[in-house]
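okkk here we go again. third time trying to get the adenosine-5'-triphosphate bound version out, last two times i messed up the smiles copy paste (missing a bracket lol). double checked this time i swear
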Amino acid sequence: MLKLTDVTAAYTPGAMVLRGITLSLEPNSISAVVGSNGAGKTTMLRAILGQMPFIGGAISMAGRQLVGRRPHEVVSAGIRAVPEGRGTFPSLTVEENLDLGGYTLSADQRQRNKEREFARFPILKDRRGQRAGMLSGGEQQMLAIGRAMMADPRLLLLDEPSQGLAPIIVDQIFALFAQLRSENVTILLVEQDVGRALEVSDRAFVLEKGSIVRSDSAAVLLHDPSIREAFLGIG
Ligand SMILES: Nc1ncnc2c1ncn2[C@@H]1O[C@H](COP(=O)(O)OP(=O)(O)OP(=O)(O)O)[C@@H](O)[C@H]1O
Ligand SMILES: [Mg+2]
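finally!!
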């Protein structure tokens, strides 16, 4: 599915933030990227999305090269992102936000996908005419995911989806990822809540100072003493 080969990236020339990332995601899997603040997690997602000014190495999606392509070409390769802070349009309604997620679709297809997302998130159907800015944090996260799903992505990138949400809402959002995987969506999840991320994921990568220092099944990492000590505060 997605393959990164020796990817380097910098915001300013010479100041490397990603230092040779190589990884590959299995189709229909959930992969977590964990690492401390400033490790380069968001930067890695930006690199995949074609949003880094200085980048080297290769990124491919289903065998198609992405590095050097423009962000809209990344979208047409079937990649969608739910950015940190959600990125919905607060002054637009719930329904308008969903419509924007499906802007490339025919009107019929857009309508079908919108009904699918309303079925997935009944609360969004109830609030379809309300401005997105009036939604609770959990509802906004659902809207952000619904909007990304409108385009039938093959790969969904999520940056800190649990941020600022109550634990019970986080449980709902994380349960949804397993459901999306069963709908043939591959998920790359960047998450501070390392325990929950590892529980829901198939594989995980530990990012440290722009390099991947561990890559293993999520279950193995979840029970690894050094991971538990570093990220879960448990020895
Ligand atoms: N727009 C930017 N311009 C310059 N440097 C940046 C920019 N954004 C991030 N950086 C730097 O790149 C490094 C990696 O940042 P990044 O945001 O990728 O980390 P992160 O792992 O997502 O951290 P967090 O857990 O805090 O979200 C940090 O040293 C950060 O200061
Ligand atoms: Mg980040």
